[in-house]
Amino acid sequence: MEPRLALVNASFDDANTLRNFRRELDAEVAVHDARAGEFPEPPAYDGLVITGSRASVYWDEPWIDAARAWAREAVDSDTPALGICWGHQLLADAVGGTVEPMDEYELGYRTVRHTDDPVFESVPESFTVFTTHSDAVTDLPDDATVIAENDYGIQGFRHGNVVGIQSHPEYDRETAETVARGKDLPDDRIEAVCADITEDAFAESRAAKRVFDNFCQRVVR
């Protein structure tokens, strides 16, 4: 039986985001627009998936305040939840972690190392995945576990049924290049990142997409 998932979309690029998540999630997906203040009732779904966003979790905006309050309720409900990039940071904030701006923007295909967590089943211990973020989870409470890291710091955590993943395993090559070219970074850095968005790099990154299958398989009631 397909799980019923709520996709909480905080993206500023609905077309790429929705295409990517609908492709990767083997589930019945109901989309909720976080920026419009639309948040699901967690118990109504088998699981929750929260997308990335150009916003920062600590911005003082009404929809972000609402998202933070909803995320705390979602954690308290014990509904399985998977946060990607901004979603990872939102869930980390909800469980009592700290999200802060980074000294250096992480952008491009990177190597990430994970621990033996069920969400990474069949994913190589050291894997390639596309990353793009200028904020990071810098601290977690004692009852949360870091499940992935790289040279930039925490790349994943677990807190009970809540999992956060900082990278973007859902990205296809089109999305990766579109996102990279939209960054306010020096042209030479953007061109270097885009030059690395090759078919080989994308093929290598496909192993990370298994996190979605693993999540879906574990939320079926």
Fold blueprint:
Elements: E1 4-9, H1 14-24, E2 28-33, E3 47-50, H2 62-77, E4 81-84, H3 86-94, E5 98-114, E6 126-139, E7 145-150, E8 153-159, E9 162-165, H4 173-181, H5 187-195, H6 199-205, H7 210-219
Parallel strand pairs: 1-2, 1-3, 3-4, 4-9
Antiparallel strand pairs: 5-6, 5-7, 7-8, 8-9
Helix pairs in contact: 2-3, 4-5
- The span between the termini is 9 Å
What fold name goes in the CATH topology slot? Rossmann fold
Provide the number of structural domains: 1
Cα radius of gyration in angstroms: 16 Å
Q: Tell me, what is the CATH class?
A: Alpha Beta
Shape: globular
The counted number of beta strands is 9
Number of helices: 7
Main pleated sheet: 9 strands, mixed
Please state how the strands of the largest beta sheet are arranged side by side. 2-1-3-4-9-8-7-5-6
Q: Look at the helices and sheets and give the structural class.
A: alpha/beta
| CATH fourth-tier homologous superfamily | Class I glutamine amidotransferase (GATase) domain
| CATH architecture heading | 3-Layer(aba) Sandwich
**Secondary-structure element series:** EHEEHEHEEEEEHHHH
Poorly predicted sequence stretches spanning 5 or more consecutive residues = none
